[in-house]
# Entry
Amino acid sequence: MDNKGIELLILAPIDQEIIIVSKIISNFFFTLLSSFIILFSSNVLFNNNLLDYKFIILIIISALGFSIVGTITSFLFSKSRGKEILSPLLFIPLVSPLLMASSSLTNQILNNEIQNQSWYGLIIGYDLLFFILGISISNFIYKE
Amino acid sequence: MINKLIISSTLIINILMLWMIFWWLPIDISQGPVAKTIFIHVPLAWCSMIAICVVAISSILYLFTKKTFWDNNAQAFAETGLVFGLSALITGIVWAKPIWGVWWTGEAKLTTTLILILIYCAYILFRSLYTNNEQMKNIAAIIAVIGAIDTPLIYFAANLWQEAHPVTVIGPLSAEETSFGMYYGITLLISVIAFTFTFLILTTTRYKTIKIETHINNKE
# Structure
């Protein structure tokens, strides 16, 4: 149910960067929590040993990227009509480099050989770029 | 007067281009008649790339200056750019089937174009769905800037992806094919000029209608 929470947050006497950063942090922790639950169940059910430091780093950085882009897109469309259609339409193309990188690295870690370290660089660069972008555009979004 | 001159010269260049493609130019030995798709596919992709750059620059300028001109400009270029980009993708698919043997591969340029088209679909859909005018323009400009920034990243990722899963690339992207002869070079140049002029005329017409729409909306 829409209880206009975002409008109340915008009305509060704080900068919009703070709203975006706090939403990113909370989304990041929820995504990370669900990732670790899935990782644990995958280890138990499929008998994989994915509790490797390489895989945990991958989960942390890709969950961060997902939450940053997800927060930015949902914040952009939070007051528009048809946000249920618009958010995924923008979110999926935007996270596609992240999806490519994380699925490719997962595959390489499962096969026990990392052929290309630059995927990690791509994910970290992506996270940093969108974090800076999110902070710098936050003041333009609801300037009234 | 100048407008009529530009339109008539564009028409003449287009007729010249069609004559060159279908009568003047010999049929390619390796690919056959299907190789002539290059004279439609490359100019369409070129025009969509111009559109994307102009939309990004106009959106940044709109965010800083708040002049309606830049916003209308971005909208006009985004709409025609989307049509040209989609046509480039479709002609690319038509070309890929006989040459690569598949309609679609995970190749870098294809993925980047598709994703960029999706981002611009979101941009145009958002403009038509949002109600508040001033905020809509701001957010639309932000979407355009994000789309333009994300593009090089997607290209880089898709290139890396291709390294991990190599695909056999025969045809337009191989080194041999780019070194085609003088006839093909001249025809490609003429077709790029013809399509660029057509694209600019369409965009200017769209810009004028958007301007009229904005004027009517402001009066209401």
About this structure: Residues 43 and 49 of chain A are 6 Å apart (CA to CA). Chain A touches chain B through 35 residues (CB under 8 Å). Chain A has one domain: 17-141. The radius of gyration of chain A is 17 Å.
